[in-house]
Amino acid sequence: GAGVSQTPSNKVTEKGKYVELRCDPISGHTALYWYRQSLGQGPEFLIYFQGTGAADDSGLPNDRFFAVRPEGSVSTLKIQRTERGDSAVYLCASSLMDSTDTQYFGPGTRLTVL
Amino acid sequence: GDSVTQMEGPVTLSEEAFLTINCTYTATGYPSLFWYVQYPGEGLQLLLKATKADDKGSNKGFEATYRKETTSFHLEKGSVQVSDSAVYFCALSDLSGYNKLIFGAGTRLAVHP
User: Fold this and answer.
1) Cα(B91)–Cα(A10) distance, rounded to whole angstroms?
2) What is the pLDDT along chain A (114 residues), one digit of tens a residue?
3) B70 touches chain A (CB under 8 A)
4) Do B42 and A107 touch (CB under 8 A)?
């Protein structure tokens, strides 16, 4: 079946602009996670959704970052007033539920802020 | 807070050599432990996992044992192939109930014929 998909695969933007990154989880998966992977580092947790609600947003670096999942499926990560330090690969993962189920990762969106 | 430390790469091996990638963790309690792999141009894939002490995870010839006494989860393979060339990430799931993953920095493995 279809895996987690993310669009766009690459996004180049200018400092100060607004960007949206989209994640389509595996059908039926209620848990959805966003991570950020900087060059040469492991992924770092940003936010977790169970259904439509953000159960844990403790990893969002500041209030320029926001994410939604209005219908409990597709999620959008929104970054306002982008900064060069936001450049990274943004990864989305989904799992059937939030307990010990395996997280399946998408291919990521590479964001470059010039 | 919880953290994962893994050996720095790159690790360069000849085909059929023995592989060990060290991973140690710091956590309050007993989290589940994972190895994820990222092949060139692909997304992260779960390689293996262990959910309690002394459990051994295994897949594709790779193994790792959850060692509570040494807080370690070292990855091993007896005979690597060129196709094993990838970046390997050790991770733990925190005990908040939300299963968010905490990753190490990754270890790049290059296997030469």
Assistant:
1) 26
2) 589 999 999 999 999 999 999 999 999 999 999 999 999 899 999 999 998 999 899 999 999 999 999 999 999 999 999 999 999 999 999 998 756 678 999 999 999 999
3) no
4) yes
